[in-house]
Amino acid sequence: MVQTQCLGENLYAFFDGHVRQFLLVGPDRALLLDTGYDRSHLREAVRAVTDRPVQVLLTHGDPDHAGGLVDFDEAWLQERDWPLVKAPVKLHPLHQGDAFVCGDYRLEVVEIPGHTYGSVAFLDRGKGLLFPGDSVQKDGPIYLFGNHRNVGLYIQSQRSLLALAGEVHTVYPCHHDCPIDPVYIGRNLEDTLALQAGTLPSEPTPGMPCRTYRGKWTAFYCTEADRCRTAGN
Ligand SMILES: [Zn+2]
């Protein structure tokens, strides 16, 4: 069951206890950031908030974010994550710097590959809001194992986000604590550099083909092979 929370003027979050989506409501349309699982049936939760047309933007293509596309006709997603989408929907590309205006909100696309190759964040510079998908989290775990993830790219993207952190007042992650302070962007980078350097303690993750690496601020699901992947491979 999805719970609806009002985060601010015309800004809502939907949360099922695991993953969160965000809804921005403007005078003639609404923007929905992510769609949850295929079983989330988010359209009903959205309709309880607004009857305006809804444009779906995705932070990335993992099934807990794009699975709910089964209830929608089209969505905007960075092209490198299109192969992850199972639902038969029309996809439109997202590019660095694309902007989506909705009432007082103006969301700008920041490409942050790493968690997936097509991951993006949405940044509202005017309001100081950052929607980083799964790429910035307090506590974690942040998934960084498997073929569609890349630790080297993830570190580059964390540096890009850190360069923008001065313009951010509030970070809205899709998992775990929300909202969080932008200081966690730098903390996330610090922990990921330690992951790459091999200095984080780790243990096998029950039921998953990976290990859990515990940093000072967040944790990662990764493997010894994946933590060494550089941006070029
Ligand atoms: Zn997720």
Task: Chart the SSEs and their pairings.
Layout: E1 3-8, E2 11-15, E3 20-25, E4 30-33, H1 42-47, E5 54-57, H2 63-66, E6 74-77, E7 90-93, E8 99-102, E9 105-111, E10 120-124, E11 129-131, E12 139-143, H3 151-164, E13 170-171, H4 183-197, E14 202-204, E15 211-214, E16 218-222, H5 224-227
Parallel strand pairs: 4-5, 6-7, 11-13, 12-16
Antiparallel strand pairs: 1-2, 2-3, 3-4, 8-9, 9-10, 10-11, 14-15, 15-16
The site of zinc ion has 7 residues, from helix 2.
Describe this structure in words.
The structure is a single chain. By secondary structure, the protein is of the alpha/beta class. It has a single domain, classed as Ribonuclease Z/Hydroxyacylglutathione hydrolase-like (Metallo-beta-lactamase, Chain A, 4-Layer Sandwich). The chain has 5 helices and 16 strands. The strands form 4 sheets. The chain has a 5-stranded mixed sheet with strand order 1-2-3-4-5. The protein has a 5-stranded mixed sheet with strand order 8-9-10-11-13, with no helix packed on it. The chain has a 4-stranded mixed sheet with strand order 12-16-15-14. Helix 1 links the parallel strand 4 and strand 5. Helix 3 packs antiparallel against helix 4. The protein is globular. The mean pLDDT is 96. The structure holds zinc ion. The site of zinc ion (ZN) has 7 residues, from helix 2. The site of zinc ion has 7 residues, from helix 2.
